[in-house]
Each structure stands twice: as C-alpha cells, then as structure tokens.
Amino acid sequence: MGVFRRMIRLREARRAVGEGRLREALAILAAPALAGRRPAAHLRNRVLYLLLERARRALDAGDLAAARDALGTARSAERHADETDRLTNRLAAAARECGAPAPADVGTPFRADRSLPDRFMLRVEEGPEALVLAAETVRIGNALDPANDIAIMANLSSCHARIRRELRFHGGVTYLLQLEGDRNGRLNGRRVREAVLTGGDEIDLGAGVRLRFAQPDPASATALLEILAGHPVDDIRTVLLLKAPGKDGRIRIGNAERTHLRVRGADRILAIHVAPAGANPAPCLWLEADGEIEVDGVRHRSSAPLHLGAYVRCGSCGFQIGRCS
Questions:
Q1: In angstroms, how far is CA 55 from the centroid of its own chain?
Q2: Can you tell me the distance from the alpha carbon of 124 to that of 127, in angstroms, rounded to the nearest whole number?
Q3: Which DSSP state fits 151?
Q4: What's the rounded Cα separation, in Å, for the pair 197 and 212?
C-alpha cells in the first residue's frame, strides 16, 4: 500500500471515529500496511479509550448489552488490558445481580485462558509499586538482555547473577546468590561466587548497582529485594520473590512490622498467596484480610480470588494487580 493509499485509509478511520463507528475504525486500522505507523497507533489508542469510556457509561446506566458489546470490541484489540479486565468484571458482577448470563471468560481468578503469570505488578496506593516474580530462579543483568527478570541499566553482564530459591532438608526454603562465571560481585563487602542469603544482606554487582535482600515475615518464604543503587528498567525498585503455591509464601501488605509492603496509614493487614490447583483448574491468587474486601466493586466477607486487572479496596488500603509492560 502506497503513501497515498495509507493516507486515505487513515482518513476513513478518522471519519469512522468521528461518527462513532468504533468497531469499523479498528477494522480499518488493523490493516497490515498500517502496522507500526505512528498516526495509526495513536488513532487506535484513541479508539480503545473511547470504547472503554462507552463501556463505563453503559455500566453506570445499567445497559449491560451495550457494555458487553464495547468491551468485546476492546478485548479483541488486546490493549489497555488491565482496565478492560476491571470493567469486564464489573459487567460480570452486574449480570449476576440481575440474573443475566455473565461473559464466559469472567468470574474465575486469572481467567482460564490466561495461566498464572510468572511476573505481575502490585500497585499499592500510598505505598510502593512492586514487581512480583514467581519463578524459582531470577536472572539479574544488563537491561539490553530481554531474558533478564531484573533488568538494570548499568555496566553489567548480560546475565550477571542469579538468585535461586531452594528447599533444603535442614534449612527449609533458602535463597542462593550465584555470580555467573567470573562476574564481579560482593555480598556485604566480601567477594563471593555463591552464597546463601539472609535478611539484611547487601549485594553489590559491578560498579554502582546495590541490592538489599530481606525476608520481613518469618512465617513467609517470600523474599523482598530492594534496588538501592542503579537504574532499573521502568524505575521499579521493589521486587518480591514470591514462593508459590501455598500460604507459606504469602505477601503481607499493611502498616506494621513484618510486612513486605509497608503502607503508612493502612488500617488493615492484607495477605496475598497463591492457592494451589484444586477447585480451580490452575493455581490462582487469593487475598485474605481481617475485614470486608471489595474487588472491582464486588464485596466479599474476608477473602476473595484475584485476577489480572483487579482493583482491591480493604479499609483505607487499596491496590491493583497489573501486567508487566
């Protein structure tokens, strides 16, 4: 498709947007010749924003059919997934209240077509934003290597170090730091090649990168890794090494000692863990709290399953489960 033809197709898409024909606009913008073109990408994002706004207005007005149609179109584009998931779960809750059928892919934690991810974001109001990694082994290295779980913009090797979670007969769950090859690394000022980590340990990698390891909750095998120095991609400096499945890997959130994520002013303690496969076809995230929980506007007594995109409110504490970019 030549330049002139692309301009015509973009003009057609803009006209469709202006007339409210959003599904048709998305179909035009899906043409392979428009892929990667900045004007088309900007217009596509505009269409998806308008679809989500249409879905919000329909939900507020109680028009479930219109909300279902708008969200179905937005979901087909696989953009703004967190917000689409949140609104879809609002739709499911509204459908249940009036006895209407809910969308088939809503209502189960981490919907059946999406398995529990190895990584996701915990965005806590009035608290830190944390990257959660559920893998047994975590790679740390240069930001140029997409295989790294913790990517840092620094003079590091492609894979500079690994932190591996192990279950030992006498020591229980332990975390082992391993430096790759002859890579430069220090643990509490001492050169090491391999060492078991304990709470408070500080890890220096190369020049200008420092991490601090902690296990705030003695009853939880989930560890906390803080990036004290260096420039992590997306500027996320709090990393949780989630032990899954089981309550012995719970993540505690609140304004108290022995919490993984400290939230000043929070009046409740929240605990997130990965529930093993049982009634659910696959492991899923589960939240427990000492009080009523609200997930995407739906109230639960003291526990609830979570899904990607969920917004949670419990007392004065709120957070969202998000995808990694």
A1: 23
A2: 5
A3: E
A4: 10
Can you list the domains of the chain with their CATH numbers? 3-98 (no CATH), 112-134+242-325 (2.60.200.20), 135-234 (2.60.200.20)
Cβ(150)–Cβ(161) below 8 Å: no
- Say what the pTM is: 0.67
Residues in the chain: 325
Contact (CB, 8 A) for 310 and 320: yes
CA-to-CA separations, 11 to 27, 30, 40, 74, in angstroms, rounded: 13, 14, 10, 21
Of residues 40, 29, 94, 44, the one with CA closest to residue 67: 94
CA atoms within 13 A on the CB side of 125: 12
Consecutive 10-residue runs of the chain (325 residues): their mean pLDDT? 73 85 82 72 79 81 80 65 64 62 42 60 89 94 88 88 86 88 82 93 91 95 95 89 92 93 91 76 80 88 86 90 78
**Neighbour-count burial of 167, counting CB atoms closer than 10 A to its CB (0-12 exposed, 13-18 middle, 19+ buried):** exposed
